[in-house]
Amino acid sequence: MSRIIAGAAGGQPLKSVPGDATRPTTDRVKEALFSRLESWDLLAGARVLDLFAGSGALGIESASRGARQVVLVEKAPKAASVCQQNAALVNKVLKTSTVSVQRGSVDSVLDSYVNAATGLPNRTFDLVLLDPPYPLTEDELATTLQKISKVLAEDATVMVERSSRSPEPSWPNELVNFSDKKYGETHLWFAEPVEV
């Protein structure tokens, strides 16, 4: 069973997505990830986008640790339903409406955040958490990262979680990788917008 590790809702159990369609982040990796994000002061007051959210555990952990707005994006109906339940649970515990869910494909949701006429974002995010399913090809991931680069705040951070057997993501010109760390079978990559 997954749980919120720390913060205002620490210890709260979360519903898991039934079946093996999703690949939950282990508590060990989640703790290491969030320790790193907190040491970089990236969570307090942040606007967080959790893509391929699964159960929403990463975004919900962000909310528990002080993010002011969290959007969970999930297309699979079962997983999106679990996201809704977990978002409702954490919002009740935190007595806020911090966490919301958008059902749909990651690319279509990202497209909806950009004004088609101007190419400028309708909303921006300080932290984007990306844990794509293994079947996502490297080209598809590169396309998604390109779309993410258009909705980032000035000092934003993008985290990509992949299998340690996967290559480094192909970063668009607008993003630069600044750190990475392996935890057993999991590899975390961190990138930020290129300074113009």
Automatic annotation (TrEMBL):
- Pfam families recorded: Cons_hypoth95
CDD domains per the UniProt record, alphabetical: AdoMet_MTases
Give the region (Disordered) as residue ranges: 1-23
An example molecular function term from Gene Ontology annotations: 16S rRNA (guanine(966)-N(2))-methyltransferase activity
Instruction: Output the InterPro entries linked to this UniProt entry.
Output: DNA_methylase_N6_adenine_CS, RNA_MeTrfase_RsmD, SAM-dependent_MTases_sf
Sorted alphabetically, which keywords does the UniProt record give? Methyltransferase, Transferase
Give the SUPFAM superfamilies listed for this entry. Answer: S-adenosyl-L-methionine-dependent methyltransferases
PROSITE patterns attached to this UniProt entry: N6_MTASE
Q: What is its EC number?
A: 2.1.1.171
Q: Any idea what this protein is called?
A: 16S rRNA (Guanine(966)-N(2))-methyltransferase RsmD
Encoding gene, per UniProt annotation: rsmD
